[in-house]
Amino acid sequence: MYVTLGLLFFSFTALFSLFSFLIFVLRLKPWCNCDVCRSFLTSAWASEFGNLCDWYSHLLRKSPTGTIHVHVLGNTITARPDNVEYMLKTRFDNYPKGKPFSTILGDLLGRGIFNVDGDSWRFQRKMASLELGSTSVRSFALDIVTSEIKSRLIPLLASVAAAAAKKREEQEDGCCGVLDLQDVFRRFSFDNICKFSFGLDPGCLRLSLPISEFAAAFDLASRHSAERAMTASPLIWKVKRLLNIGSERKLREAVRMVDDLAAEMIRSRREMGFSDKQDLLSRFMASVDDDRYLRDIVVSFLLAGRDTVSSALTSFFYLISEHPEVERAIREESDRVMMAGSDEVPNFSDMQEMHYLHAAIHESMRLYPPVQFDSKFCQEDDVLPDGTLVRKGTRVTYHPYAMGRMERIWGSDCLEFKPERWLKNGVFAPVCPFKYPVFQAGLRVCLGREMAVMEMKTVALTIIRRFDIRVVGPHQEPRFSAGLTATVRGGLPIHVHERS
């Protein structure tokens, strides 16, 4: 009996693999003879470029219009500011997130703000705008960040630096003071966003660096949700989901854990009362009675607030390690602004005066945006400002990563890390958001961008003033793993030294 069942399972698996391959081939059938499609089909990018986003950047630079169409994916990709403005502002209603996108992330994000269009999006947008724009919420968020820096981030880095110094004194061999900074920032950001969203402290950044089941489940759910977009056909992951096998089974288990925690938090908050609480869950409870809807809203903010901040900080410290002159300039600026003997964590007024630091953070995200590209789905036939015809149902993608590397947008030094490009007479000068859509732009511009930048600046300056951070190993460009946000493959191993 068991042999028969095994044979049946083996046969089904083989047929399923064949079926998946046939779907992929059928999707390739209408491919055209252009260089773009030939390159895609032969995976030429893998041998020439470290990252898929670098390959796209290469193709977009070669394109006379700054727009390409990958026929096998049904995807129009652009790196033109006028096209971005057209999609995100001028014809906003014709370029929604779309059902294909919301289906991919539906199990994790449900009806959350980043996964819906129309009235549901407008309601959440209005509600979030009122809450995130208030002074009390921003002060609450900064207090959380400051506390996490003082009680966990600084002690962790100091302990690693002290251990490294002791090994050097004792002349011991080994990789002393090595730490995965990307992991540290992911833990730091997860602690902060959980406190801010749920009023929950997972304690991921305690000195022992514990494994949080909730954080692990959230990571797993994010990763497998992103993998859905990589499959040759949605039918493949939908069949796996129906049969509850493979990655879809793991995704379901991870989402169930996230659901259980969210449900428990909501139930507890309703029983204990929420009128005196400041976290987002408590604030949204005043306007939303549907517990499942509440869960979707808050989990969406968890995803946005955790991965984007940790990704941006990881890239920033990679660049700082490669450019010590920028590090020196940031320290000199902080010495001018902050009083001698002032608190180790800068306050809000100090941050407002640090234009060079602000420029360095923005320059880092120009080269390494946390969200490397974003897609919409065209509702009706349209023509982009550059003359590109877009058919109904076509996926249209704007590519911030590629845009940061376009000479026609940023000049001949576009590949250089130069915070000075953001300064005029020493004062930070913002650029058109459609030229720099790192926080999106137009009607969907990120509501939490000011709080996110403030968090990044506070962390960056605190670390730079107290520690020397250097990436371990030879110089090489970051390699990114596939995902919803930019994650450095293998992490970012660093040496930590405390400054005298």
List the keywords.
alpha+beta; 3-stranded antiparallel beta sheet; 21 helices; Cytochrome p450; about 500 residues; about 55% helix; single chain; 4-stranded mixed beta sheet
Describe the protein.
Belongs to the cytochrome P450 family. Its cofactor is heme. It comes from Ficus carica. One of its GO terms (molecular function) is monooxygenase activity. InterPro entries: Cyt_P450, Cyt_P450_E_grp-I, Cyt_P450_sf. The protein is α+β, with helices and mostly antiparallel strands. It has one domain: Cytochrome P450 (Cytochrome p450). It is 57% helix and 8% strand. It is built from 21 helices and 13 strands. A 4-stranded mixed β-sheet has the order 1-2-7-4. It has a 3-stranded antiparallel β-sheet with strand order 3-13-10. Strand 11 and strand 12 form a beta hairpin. Helix 10 runs antiparallel to helix 15, helix 13 packs across helix 15 and helix 15 packs parallel to helix 21. The chain is globular. The N and C termini lie far apart (72 Å). The N terminus is likely disordered.
CATH fold topology: Cytochrome p450
The structure class reads alpha+beta
CATH class: Mainly Alpha
Give the tally of structural domains. Answer: 1
Question: How confident overall, as mean pLDDT?
Answer: 86
Helix content: 55-70%
Rg value: 24 Å
Q: Helix tally?
A: 21
What CATH architecture label applies? Answer: Orthogonal Bundle
- Give the biggest beta sheet: 4 strands, mixed
Name of the CATH homologous superfamily: Cytochrome P450
Strand arrangement, major sheet: 1-2-7-4
pLDDT under 50 segments (min length 5)?
A: 1-42
Distance between the termini: 72 Å
Strand content: 5-15%
Using the alpha-carbon principal axes, give the shape: globular
**Strand count:** 13
